User: Fold this.
Amino acid sequence: MGIIEKMRLDGKKGFVTGGARGIGKSVALALCEAGADIAIVDMDIDEAQKTAEWMAKETGQDVFAVQTDVTSPDDVNQMVDQVLARFGRLDIAFCNAGICINVPAVDMTFEQWKKVIDVNLTGVFLTAQAAGRIMIKQGSGSIINTASMSAHIVNVPQPQCAYNASKAGVIQLTKSMAVEWATTGVRVNSISPGYIGTELILAAPHLTALIDEWNKIGPMHRLGKPEELQALVVYLAGDMASFTTGSDFVADGAFTAF
Ligand code: NAD
Assistant:
């Protein structure tokens, strides 16, 4: 069997949070193209359903949508129950849903701080914990959490202290789970993308106004594309990565390299 065949995910079952659009949608497509069946988990059920129908048609895999707010333990537990009812097992969890609020630290309200931490850090904790509980029983599984280059540097010029803190938290959460579960067959890793051209940026005028400025700083002088994260997550999801756990993978066009 060649290396590409060994990297395939045939027979594996997974979920992707924030899967309706952006990075989640692109990675979910890649997981399906590699042979996995995937639940598209998102708060926006209309978009999630559209994505799931399109992806099922495109790839021939079993893809369905589940409405979930990742900040709600009840929602997350119900989501996992639905995934198990449909698929019978869980091999891959891409805990990826996230939001950003750009407010200076001195002006940030408690609600704004809490919202970002709830979605980006607590949401990843709840979904990874729920996935881990199933995977530990199975004796196998791969969890991939979305952190950010903002876990490693402080972005400029836009202020985003809660986002940066939440993403740094995702990396330590990932490492903690990886160490606790190292002998169970369950691996936990994170990815740290640089600026990626998704609606998180492209639908926010205060951020699109900064793209030229970021591109001046970034050594590749461009945004990344969601497709440029696909192979990394497919690799981490599969059995070829069996010795890789507790690591963070930066994919940022060298933005944080200097
Ligand atoms: P996006 O805004 O395009 O997509 C995010 C998706 O998450 C949306 O479909 C949204 O409905 C969903 N979502 C938001 N809150 C949710 C909740 N509470 N429960 C369930 N679903 C929820 O964003 P994206 O750019 O695709 O970002 C995906 C992840 O990548 C996020 O964690 C983000 O922080 C991270 N990231 C993005 C970039 C970037 O430049 N775009 C860079 C580094 C990291």
Q: What stands out?
A: The radius of gyration is 17 Å. The pocket of nicotinamide-adenine-dinucleotide is lined by residues 17-18, 20-24, 42-44, 68-71, 96-99, 119, 123, 146, 148, 193, 195-196, 198-201 (CB under 6 Å).
